[in-house]
Known about the structure:
This protein has a single domain, classed as Spore Coat Polysaccharide Biosynthesis Protein SpsA, Chain A, CATH 3.90.550.10. The chain is an alpha/beta fold. About 30% of the residues lie in helices and about 20% in strands.
Amino acid sequence: MNNTSQQPNRPRTAVILAAGKGTRMGGDMPKVLHEVAGKPMLHWVAQACREAGAAPLIVVVGYRSELVREALAGQDDIVFVEQTEQLGTGHAVEVCRDSLADLGGDAFVLAGDGPLIRARTLCKMAEMHARSQASATLATAVLEDATGYGRIVRDEQDRFASIVEHKNASEAQLAIHEVYPSYAIFDVYDLLEMLEILPRDAVSGEFYLTEVPAMLRSNGKQVEIVPGVPAEDILSINTPAQLADVDAILQNRLHMEATT
């Protein structure tokens, strides 16, 4: 446990990963700019982060970055960082090193293509993170069909042990239904320390952020879990059909909020 985690009123920022193309979506628009409920899906992720008290928002851009910058123009709380090579989620956060080091405190790290994320989930994570003085706090969800998601492996005390990517999972690990929906909050300096020694994945050659929590644990740091994210909230968007499904869910959610 480091000393900074005990300081009151710690800064809280967010890193939103928005550099990918989304090849299965069709066309040449960056994935995060496809609209859900009338706005780019990235808008809803940024809004949830703001409502959870994060500022500034560091948006990692890459593919057709000029379009993402244009879509978010005039939003003074956004800092853009360019990921010129797509070398994985760990690399995407690494390119934010200078910005994060200047800010310190804690940082959410989230995917920009998850518009159903709720601010209350992020707030719950931040509360657990502060209360436990953890180096990392992860949200998890339980899915009937966990295909494609990183599995949460727990130890004998039912605490976090590791995240195993679907393609690297054993048969026993593939049977796990608790998954990591890419919602995390980290102590910034602990995160940056681990990124310095983050290895490339042997299969893909990329740097996976999902390795960092287990690395922290191996270095004697505390990693906490906030379970129970509704399965609906973590629906992935990789195809136009999935985009339509998520759009319908968010439209209905906004309508319900407006009428209650």
